[in-house]
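Structure in, sequence out. Go:
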């Protein structure tokens, strides 16, 4: 019997050490509410904006929160105005003079994603959240037979830009944008000469952010079955400049900017794909880890390092590079995960590991 107790004690000690090692310097924080799925983390003045959903009966309901430090959360009221609004998960936002949020619900005859648009006053502090109100839109402004997708939002000054894909006036699918100055009324731009497809090509917008050039979109064009990485910049969200990133057989999929620079992540499309990092729009990409399937989820450009969440063969990794895309480091995550989001706070790096039912939040102090 004494041996049994001793063995159990040893096993408990080993299990406790394993859990501590698994967390690798991360401290778990409480979720905003039980069952919260935090799908996006966005820096705002004096804190972070979290977007996602909460359980609602057998479904999910839209939810958003503000926090100064990731430990104390203030709920932002969300007021749906359409049937899909009550079922939406909030997935992306543009924060300029107003906060404009993109939501997504699934339904309809084909179970396709149904986009919802929400807006509210710009959050001034985590203690004074502004209500998010849904603005129902005409179905064929964002959907219908000519639509590919609407995927992400970004805001700068008084303009919000959504990106996606559309069947343009010449019948060629390509990158498209939607713009709004109030979050409620939108204009689609499917024939911009810099974004849309010309004969013999197919453009696609993968992600949007803001940085020194203003708005920054990254994506690709396909010509003669070869994919070429692209970046588009705009000072105002209406007039775009197309920039061919150095390289061929590659995709640009995410960008992160600070006040001084933007770093673009993507991947090669060769038989042996690798992660790619462009330190700027004129320098060839630096290759990183290889994997059969690569998906970059988030890029943050800090002063001395750039951080990226990249999924390699289904497993999320936190990669770190210097401003020249050199010195690749793989920072251990607190737990194995397939879907992760992150944002920086004064106290460290805030992480959300996401599964089908909820998220777990983690904080890692700055080195």
């Amino acid at each position: 019997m004494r041996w049994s107790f001793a063995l159990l004690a040893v096993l408990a000690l080993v299990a406790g050490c394993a859990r501590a090692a698994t967390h690798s310097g991360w401290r778990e924080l409480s979720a905003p509410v039980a069952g919260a799925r935090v799908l996006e983390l966005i820096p705002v003045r004096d804190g972070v904006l979290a977007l996602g959903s909460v359980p609602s009966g057998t479904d999910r309901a839209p939810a958003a929160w503000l926090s100064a430090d990731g430990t104390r959360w203030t709920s932002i009221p969300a007021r749906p105005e359409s049937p899909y609004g009550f079922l939406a998960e909030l997935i992306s936002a543009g924060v300029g003079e107003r906060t404009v949020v993109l939501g997504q619900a699934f339904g309809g005859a084909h179970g396709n994603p149904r986009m919802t648009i929400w807006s509210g006053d710009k959050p001034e502090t985590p203690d004074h959240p502004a209500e998010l109100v849904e603005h129902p839109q005409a179905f064929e402004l964002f959907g219908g037979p000519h639509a590919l997708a609407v995927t992400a939002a970004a805001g700068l000054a008084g303009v919000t830009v959504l990106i996606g894909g559309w069947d343009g006036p010449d019948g060629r699918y390509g990158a498209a944008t939607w713009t709004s100055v109030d979050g409620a009324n939108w204009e689609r731009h499917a024939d911009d000469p810099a974004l849309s497809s010309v004969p013999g090509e197919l453009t696609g917008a993968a992600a949007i952010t803001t940085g020194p050039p203003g708005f920054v979109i990254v994506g690709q064009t396909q010509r003669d079955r070869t994919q070429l990485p692209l970046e588009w910049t705009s000072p105002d969200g209406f007039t775009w400049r197309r920039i061919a990133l150095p390289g061929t057989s590659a995709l640009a999929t995410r960008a992160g900017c600070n006040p001084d620079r933007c770093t673009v992540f993507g991947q090669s499309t060769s038989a042996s794909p690798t992660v790619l990092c462009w330190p700027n729009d004129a320098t060839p990409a630096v290759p990183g880890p290889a994997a059969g399937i690569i998906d970059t989820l988030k890029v943050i450009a800090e002063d001395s390092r750039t951080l990226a969440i990249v999924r390699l063969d289904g497993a999320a990794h936190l990669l770190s590079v210097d401003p020249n895309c050199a010195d690749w480091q793989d920072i251990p995550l607190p737990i194995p995960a397939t879907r992760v989001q992150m944002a920086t706070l004064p106290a460290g790096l805030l992480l959300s590991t996401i599964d089908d039912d909820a998220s777990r939040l983690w904080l890692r102090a700055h080195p």
